[in-house]
């Protein structure tokens, strides 16, 4: 890295005459030396990963500007149409009055009201001027509708790693997930808002608003281009993650939408609800394509197999069911639970599913044989949730017992316990370096678990 001639900061400019290098803050110092300068910006090649992020951001901005220009043209046409419509209504009144006066000229005899109308009144025309409207329009369209705001960039050595909290949510957080190479966390909850957190700068980059009641679930497409959210208002909303705006609202459920998932090809969205139904939505038309009935109580969780062939759903009716996605029918249901199933997750290889039920037990299921492999006891709280690490080696669990636990799937033993407030949701980073959690304390917490995971001994982090 080339540094400034005057300090240790990164150089952004070079002087062709003196060969001096300057950061932004030392350009004035350089100009004091002489009046003759030829400056040029220092350019550099980007690594493939940074170039990919750079190009993605440029494309996002192009998409934003394209959408903005389309909206501006649409609203401008609406305004023009409105002006024409109002003008037409006013002219219609004027023409009507003209015709009435013209008829009076052709009359030979007149009624008392006609005589009084003309002889005992004056025609008063309200003065009008379009200059005020013109001035308003000029002021409105002279606004700088977009600008490039310099980010409060983090120090170059800062990473996601570390224990810290992201504050800003107004009420309990119900769901959290990671995206964009684990550099972004997305949370939602009782305050009806979705927040996008930059884990490098520790700031909230965006807030999505639109739901009328508590948000219960969120999910991302595989390429992170779209986000879906389900709410107690019975609606599902689809958001564009690049342009950061609402694409569509899906209506159909008669109860709170508690769980959602995109198919891997991003063509469909599957949702589960307190209305006991699973619904499949065609994202090319945003229309509901199928309804799957079978559960007799609220559906709390669902996942879709990696090949998009099966849907797995968990319900308060004490069953965990398997549905054929393409044939739109139930293939199997796993019983043996003594209470409702609150959470489930599937390993990336699609062969293992983990469930947590209200009886505080963790169950491992063989998907190929549709059988229970094992049952782990050890949860002490209610409202439990579960996540499987991307490598399929660990289970992350939490509840209202003020403990987050990480389990080794192979040994069925706890390898780490994190002591905190009650939690309602959590997620592993791709490499198990850290986890994020959310709960009633309104904070998205980031936990560095890398060191503890490297140890063979169980550890407790407070």
TrEMBL record:
Keywords: Repeat, WD repeat
Taxonomic lineage from the root: Eukaryota, Sar, Alveolata, Ciliophora, Postciliodesmatophora
CDD domains membership: WD40
Organism: Stentor coeruleus
Annotated transmembrane regions: none
SMART domains hit by this protein: WD40 (SM00320)
This protein's name: Uncharacterized protein
Alphabetical list of PANTHER family matching this protein: F-BOX AND WD REPEAT DOMAIN CONTAINING 7, WD40 REPEAT PROTEIN
WD repeat residue intervals: 166-199, 208-249, 250-291, 292-324, 334-375, 386-417, 416-457
Pfam families, A to Z: WD40
């Amino acid at each position: 890295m080339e540094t400034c001639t005057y300090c240790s900061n990164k150089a952004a400019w070079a002087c062709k005459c003196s060969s001096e290098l300057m950061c932004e803050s030392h350009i004035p110092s350089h100009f004091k030396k002489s009046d003759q300068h030829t400056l040029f910006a220092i350019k550099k090649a980007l690594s493939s990963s940074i170039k990919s992020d750079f190009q993605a951001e440029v494309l996002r901005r192009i998409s934003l500007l394209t959408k903005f220009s389309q909206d501006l043209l649409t609203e401008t046409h609406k305004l023009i149409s409105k002006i024409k419509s109002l003008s037409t209504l006013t002219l219609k009144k004027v023409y009507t009055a003209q015709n009435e006066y013209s008829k009076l000229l052709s009359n030979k005899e007149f009624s008392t009201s006609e005589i009084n109308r003309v002889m005992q009144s004056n025609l008063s025309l309200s003065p009008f001027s379009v200059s005020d409207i013109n001035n308003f329009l000029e002021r409105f369209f002279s606004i700088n509708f977009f600008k490039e705001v310099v980010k409060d960039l983090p120090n170059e050595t800062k990473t996601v790693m570390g224990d810290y909290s992201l504050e800003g949510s107004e009420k309990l957080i119900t769901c959290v997930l990671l995206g964009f190479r684990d550099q972004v966390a997305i949370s939602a909850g009782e305050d009806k808002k979705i927040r996008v957190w930059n884990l490098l700068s520790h700031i909230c980059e965006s807030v999505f608003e639109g739901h009328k009641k508590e948000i219960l679930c969120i999910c991302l497409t595989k390429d992170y281009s779209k986000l879906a959210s389900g709410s107690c208002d019975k609606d599902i909303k689809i958001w564009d993650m690049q342009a950061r705006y609402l694409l569509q609202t899906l209506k159909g459920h008669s109860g709170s939408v508690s769980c959602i998932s995109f198919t891997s090809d991003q063509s469909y969205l599957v949702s589960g609800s307190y209305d006991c139904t699973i619904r499949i939505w065609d994202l090319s038309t945003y229309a509901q394509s199928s309804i799957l009935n079978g559960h007799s109580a609220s559906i709390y969780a669902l996942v879709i197999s990696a090949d998009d062939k099966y849907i797995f759903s968990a319900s308060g009716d004490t069953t965990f069911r398997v549905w054929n996605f393409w044939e739109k029918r139930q293939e199997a249901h796993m019983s043996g639970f003594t209470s409702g199933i609150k959470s489930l997750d599937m390993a990336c290889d699609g062969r293992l599913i983990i469930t947590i039920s209200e009886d505080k037990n963790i169950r491992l299921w063989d998907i190929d044989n549709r059988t229970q492999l094992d049952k782990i006891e050890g949860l002490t709280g209610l409202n439990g949730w579960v996540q499987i690490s991307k490598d399929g080696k660990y289970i992350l669990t939490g509840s209202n017992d003020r403990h987050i636990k990480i389990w080794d799937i192979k040994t069925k033993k706890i390898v780490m316990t994190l002591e905190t407030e009650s939690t309602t949701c959590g997620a592993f980073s791709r490499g198990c370096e850290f986890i994020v959690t959310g709960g009633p304390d309104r904070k998205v917490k980031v936990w560095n678990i890398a060191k503890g995971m490297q140890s063979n001994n169980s550890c407790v982090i407070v």
